Amino acid sequence: MSAVLDIAMRARTAATELALTTTAVKNAGLMSAATALDAATATVLGANARDVASARDNGTRGALLERLTLTAPRVAAMAQGLRDIAGLPDPVGEMLEQFHRPNGLEIRKVRVPLGVIAVIYEARPNVTADVAGLCIKSGNAAILRGSATALHSNTAVVNAITPALDAAGLPPHSVQLLDDTTREGATELMRLRGHIDLLVPRGGPALIEQIIETATVPYVIDGDGNCHIYVDAEADLAMAGRIVLNAKTSRPSVCNAAEKLLVHADIAEAFLPGMVTTLEAAGVEVRGDARSRAIAPSIRPATDDDWGAEYLDLIMAVRVVADGGAAIEHITRHGSGHTEAIVTENQSTARSFVARCPSAVVAVNASTRFTDGGEFGYGAEIGNSTQRLHARGPMGLRELTTYRIEVWGDGQVRE
Amino acid sequence: MSAVLDIAMRARTAATELALTTTAVKNAGLMSAATALDAATATVLGANARDVASARDNGTRGALLERLTLTAPRVAAMAQGLRDIAGLPDPVGEMLEQFHRPNGLEIRKVRVPLGVIAVIYEARPNVTADVAGLCIKSGNAAILRGSATALHSNTAVVNAITPALDAAGLPPHSVQLLDDTTREGATELMRLRGHIDLLVPRGGPALIEQIIETATVPYVIDGDGNCHIYVDAEADLAMAGRIVLNAKTSRPSVCNAAEKLLVHADIAEAFLPGMVTTLEAAGVEVRGDARSRAIAPSIRPATDDDWGAEYLDLIMAVRVVADGGAAIEHITRHGSGHTEAIVTENQSTARSFVARCPSAVVAVNASTRFTDGGEFGYGAEIGNSTQRLHARGPMGLRELTTYRIEVWGDGQVRE
Fold first, then answer.
1. What is the CATH number that goes with domain A3-221+387-408?
2. What ipTM is given for this predicted complex?
């Protein structure tokens, strides 16, 4: 039996028990795991230093290296994340529906775990603790397939928390790290139909493409964020300026950062020159269409490739549009379905934009950066769905569950 | 552009409008379509007669021919089905959640249509009307890809209802029949990622296998029903007998018919001889393990292949098990995740069985045959999900929707 299948079969056994494990035991496990992770800080930082040194030797730098690097406060934040998840309501057992039929049958829909959840993710060791915590709390067994670049870090985190989970009475193998970080190992994982109930790929377009073409297991795509802000003719322009600056510059490397700015033609002259100056002062390279460049000449020309791009960087492309309908058309054509925002004081315009927007999340007079499990009060998130099936937007505990339908009778048969 | 892509692009345009169409217009369209279908009865029956004649010439017989054959009452039932769907609550716009965050943001989860739904189905012309009706009511554009065997019938049904839908003000191309019934056409449909938001394959294992290996669009598997009934030591044996007989014989060709009977060892001698006699008198071939055959010698030997089989016929396989735990083990190993039932007077045994059962639907003291959208009060169903992601069990209107997340602010930015 291959190592990947072996892990998956152990995960199934764990999942069967985890589905029946009480909230108290799950929470005790999470609290113990947090304590154990705190206690293992030096070991985790030592392992992480090896990963960081190798990555640096291999030429990794900038945001990628920053995401890989752990510090004592970051390990403490991971442990606190586990405690926060322990504090969230347990979704399992929630009665979603309960009704009687005329023949006396009582039908109940009860929330239950999905089963075995696998996550393929980049070199971000904090994801290891987040995913483990969310899966445990939602009663699912977790298979973690991190990046080779973070293998020492991930191993140290998992080695710290799993003895604590076991000691607290959780089923063995509830959380497993796949140490086969080859592409072949990932491919095998994607094709374990019947063994994996949900695969969440967190990665770039190449991983998503591989999943779509290769996976036979159910998956939810955690996709790109080519997020737009539309500034309407009736916007509070000062508010629009604050929102655009925040959405673009507060953390440009994440998927909920704004990449595109659509400006209503009627206020383009009043709004764009100041906005572009502000963005450029914050280090943003602003690109744009001919109409925007005629108004703010420092804007560089955008190409057709710009409209579909997720920069994840201090770049923003601007386009002047006729109205909200034209903004929706642009978003429908070029967007990635993640998050869009409108800034307007006109409630009717806002409602129309929201109703027509094809994306998972639509913000009105707020930054795109609020699309986040933590900001929504879900605790951590296992990913952000840009597809329509099963879940949309930030995926917290409830998005890691399904339901069982119970039919309670006293001898009913069908005519 | 290929015919399949052309249809999909027209469906997207229709879906965008349908999502904004009022309940009143959708219901008026469904009522008009019902009237039009009634009026077209003779035409539909004439087209169906051609399909039936061809199928008979090609050797089709039995249940397959019966499912293909329309009669005036069956056409009337299809029309009534459309009226029934008009009478169901509109799921679109339902507020699933609404809450405020400490920073003043209001977050709303609002139910919205999935978009474009494609259904691949067998030679059952009544499915054409059911799927069209469910998709329209839930605000989705429908692409119907029926069997070549039913092409004349399906074309007649769609030609009857679409002018009525158009006249009632629904978007053109809300319901389209794909008249390319080749395997290549189906393959192309399965790979129209970005164009199809949900594909529901209703068919046998070969179709499911093709979907799993080939599809790039999101799908929900409408899978086999290898349904079990477990008769506990504390069952009311008379009730058990009625339930088993009903679940096996009331309609053996459908997926919610029971295929397997698991009997607690303690009551096997009291229960099996009479049960087997009753089943055999109803024309059922009973197969079984050595223990059951020692008790009821008319039982024929079961082979290993029997335990995983979906007979869809008057055959039932019996096994004597040690207890409910052994029954769950058997179901976990051999079941298809559709529906299982337990017959017991012991509530604690029932609760334990329900909690451990891996299937979508679990019935207590009721026939497996209640797993049905109509029996659950959903109106018609578009399929029955045997997977865990997105939806489980009968899929009615709500299972054809997703949600949009709205973030309403007054200028909030993220720290």
1. 3.40.605.10
2. 0.94
